[in-house]
Design the sequence.
């Protein structure tokens, strides 16, 4: 099968578009014929050798990518929920390797969900890693509830565009932090207010917020403490030693006082039942994918270069078939 893989770390020209052996589904796995995959910043961090959790990486050569949307072509033993012909999408768990930038990928059943009927494969491929991150950060780390106020810093990117929509589904009042060029986009996703980070610092103008979701990881618990009400939560996507330590300290403090501000780091989990929940919200018209650009699989290097600019509006998609 055709795939995009690496046999060493380096710049985007180490990506090889070539032939790799087709996978077979093991017990409990679903073999997916991939129509579209998506590119996440993690993919080029892995490719460049800068991924923090390098110990999770398979041996070279390996195929990059975790998000896929496609059609089931075969199922392994014990698979109960899916059958050949079904349209599905998935985030392949890191512990199983990556493998999404390919014509075929085998994914364990627990990570797979029914693809939303209302979405094309390109739109659906954008969802898994980014929307699961947003859902798990807001629901699990921040424990966001109806009527609360949340700030989404980095509201126009892959995770941020889903985070704004999911926060609205969860019933929150949403302030998006984005550049003026993306303000309309963020409002169209449901944000009640947009702050242009190039014109003013949200830290200077907001207070009494229940949650700050720092999608792009440029802030810190300290820089957001005046923005949060007592008992409020700062959640970041970037697992740094300092935020990890702050998270442990804040958990200890919150045992003794409900007014202590909490710090959290989201680490996305591949989870088919969370993805099924997203499918239902998508089919109800409550969540959409914003596509920045679509590239043929063979041009994955261009998509990586675009992702590295950190200027994408929504998601970068690879069209596989
Ligand atoms: N821990 C986890 O499990 C996990 C999971 C998913 C993602 N992540 C990490 O989360 C980060 C975001 O991922 P992503 O897919 O959303 O990235 P992305 O799509 O590449 O984000 C790009 C967006 O960030 C915006 N941006 C850049 N600088 C900004 C600033 N100073 N203030 C506000 N917005 C700014 C850009 O808007 P402008 O062009 O207008 O500046 C652009 O729309 C990445 O570092 C990724 O590795 C971690």
Sequence:
């Amino acid at each position: 099968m055709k795939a995009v893989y690496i046999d060493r770390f380096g710049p985007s020209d180490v990506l090889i578009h070539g032939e790799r052996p087709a996978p077979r589904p093991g017990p409990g796995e679903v073999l997916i014929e991939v129509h579209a995959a998506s590119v996440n910043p993690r993919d080029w961090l892995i490719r460049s050798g800068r991924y923090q959790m390098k110990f999770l990486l398979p041996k070279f050569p390996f195929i990059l990518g975790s998000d896929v949307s496609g059609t089931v072509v075969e199922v392994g033993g014990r698979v109960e929920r899916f059958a050949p012909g079904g349209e599905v999408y998935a985030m392949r768990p890191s512990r199983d390797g990556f493998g999404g930038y390919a014509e075929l990928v085998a994914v364990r059943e627990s990570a797979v969900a029914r693809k939303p009927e209302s979405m094309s494969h390109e739109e659906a491929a954008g969802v898994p890693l980014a929307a699961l991150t947003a859902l798990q950060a807001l629901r699990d780390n921040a424990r966001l509830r109806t009527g609360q106020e949340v700030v989404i810093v980095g509201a126009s990117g892959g995770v941020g565009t889903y985070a704004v929509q999911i926060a609205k589904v969860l019933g929150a009042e949403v302030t998006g932090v984005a550049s003026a060029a993306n303000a309309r986009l963020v409002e169209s996703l449901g944000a009640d207010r947009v702050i242009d980070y190039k014109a003013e610092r949200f830290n200077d103008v907001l207070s009494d917020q229940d949650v700050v979701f720092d999608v792009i990881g440029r802030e810190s618990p300290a820089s957001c403490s005046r923005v949060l009400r007592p008992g409020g939560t700062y959640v970041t996507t970037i697992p740094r030693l300092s935020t990890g330590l702050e998270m442990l300290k804040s958990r200890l403090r919150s045992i003794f006082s409900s007014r202590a501000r909490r710090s959290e780091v989201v680490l996305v989990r591949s989870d088919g039942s969370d993805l099924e929940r997203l499918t239902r919200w998508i089919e109800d018209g409550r969540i959409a994918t914003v596509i920045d650009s679509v590239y043929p699989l063979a041009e994955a290097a261009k998509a990586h270069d675009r992702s590295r600019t950190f200027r994408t509006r929504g998601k970068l998609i690879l069209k596989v078939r």
Q: What stands out?
A: The chain has nine helices and 16 strands.
